[in-house]
Design goal:
cysteine-type peptidase activity; hydrolase; seven-stranded mixed sheet; Ubiquitin-like protease family profile domain-containing protein
Amino acid sequence: MDQTQYKMKRSKMLHNLTSSLAKFEQQVLFDKFQPTFILQICLLKVQSISKKMYIFRYCCCCCFGGRPNKIDPDRPQKPSNSEKINPKYYQDVENNNGVNDNRAHIKNNEHNQKPRNCTYYQDFDRVEIETEKYDKLIIFTNILFYYCEKSSTVNQSKPNDLNCDGELYMTKYDQDTNPKFEFAQGKFQVDLEQKKFNLILPPIKQSHGIMKEFEEQSNNLMNDQNNGFQENRKMEIKIFDANTNKQLNKHHSGNNQYLRNQNQKLQQFCKFNQILTTDDVNILSEKRWMTSSIIDSYVLYLNKSGEEHYFNLTMDERSSIRRILFFPSSLTTNFGTEFNLQKVRDLFEQEKPQFKQINFKLSLLYHYVGFPINNNNTHWLFLLFNLNSEKVFVFDSMPNKKLSFKEEIGLIAQILNVEHPELIEHQHSGQQKDSYSCGYRVCSLMGFYYDNQFKKEDAANYKYNEQKIIDKLKTLIKVP
C-alpha cells in the first residue's frame, strides 16, 4: 500500500470511528445506568484495522461488536453431561464453559412440583414454615404475615380472628406504581376476613411492638445511581490522535452547548420505583440498547401483576399454579467485582426483607425465580432457577458466548437453598443476529414465563416478538 492509499484509508477509518463514537457518546452521557469512558486510541501504533475496531468494540459494548457466524437454532447439539456446581468451588470445565451444551427444553411434564405444606383459602394462602420464632405464614395480595400458631389464641365464635405474636410486611403502591413497605412486629389482633392486622398496643408504649415504614432497597440505590448519573454527565469522551495529540471529536465534547441543551430537554419522572426519562421512551422507539431502569420497571410490573392475578384465581386453580418471582437487575449489579456470600446475602435481605424469616427458601412459595443480568454493562443475560429440580437455565441471546457469571450463580444458589445447581443452556439462546436486542429478548422471555405460570405452555412454543415487547414497555414507562 503506497502512502496516498494509506492516508485515504486512515482518513476514512477516522471519520467512521469518530462518527460512531459520537453516537455512543450521546448514549453514554444520557443513560444513567451505563458507564462513561475516557478513551485514547493510539491509531498509528496499531497496524491492522481489525485490531483498531477490536479496541473500539471492547470499550463500548456488545452493540458495536463484530458478529460471529450465524447459527442455525435447529442445528444438532454436541452431547455432553450437564454440570453440577458445587457452590464452594467455581472452576470452568474444559470445552464446556460451565454450561450444558445440550439445549434442554423446559417442559411442563418435566417438573413434578414438590408437595408444599400450603392450605388455600378464598382470599389467602397459609404456608407451614419452620423458623425459630414462627411456624405459619399467611399470604394475601401484597401482604405477608408470619406468626406462631402454637402461642396464638383463636376467637371461638370467629375462627378467622386470632391474637398472636407476628411480623407483618405490607406493600402499598402509589398511582405510578412506586412501592412503599410497611413493617410491624409484636402482638397482633388479626381479622383474616377483613384483612386487618392490628397491634394490640401502640408500638410506642409497648417495647415488643415495633412499627415502621421503609422504602424498597432498590429505590435507595436508584437515588444513588441518579446522583451518579448527574455527575457522569459532566464527564466526556475524548479521542486523541497519538501522533499529534489532537482531539478528534472535540465538536462532540460533553461540555458543548448541544449536549447541555439536550440534557435540559430530558424530563425525569419516577415510576415503578425507577427514575425514568423521556429518553428511555426514545430508546425503545429507536431500538437502542436497553437500560436497567426499563428492565427493572418491567420486573416490578410482572411481580405486582402476577400476585394480583394469582389471588384472583379460585382455591383449586391456585393450588396448581407454578409461580415465578423476578429479581431486579440492580441486585446482581450491586454485587460489584469483589463479593462473597455475606455480601450477596446482605443484598438479598435489603432487596426482599420479607423473605429473611424463611432464610430465602423461596421454594415454599415459588416454583421459579428469574434474574435479568446486566453483564458488565456490555450485555443482557437471563437466569431462570427451577427451585424444585435445581436446574438453572442460562439464556444468552448471543451465540458462542462464554459464561462469565458462574461464581455469582453459585452464590445465588446458596442463598436460595439450591444445593446442587445444574447449569443448562436455554433452548432459545444464541438467536440474536443484530447489535442491540439482548435486553429486548430478556424482557420478552420474562414476559413468556410470567404468562406461562398461568397458561402452562411448553417453552418450546416461545416465539420472540420484538415489536410486541417494545409496545408493551412503551405503554408501561410512558410519561405520567
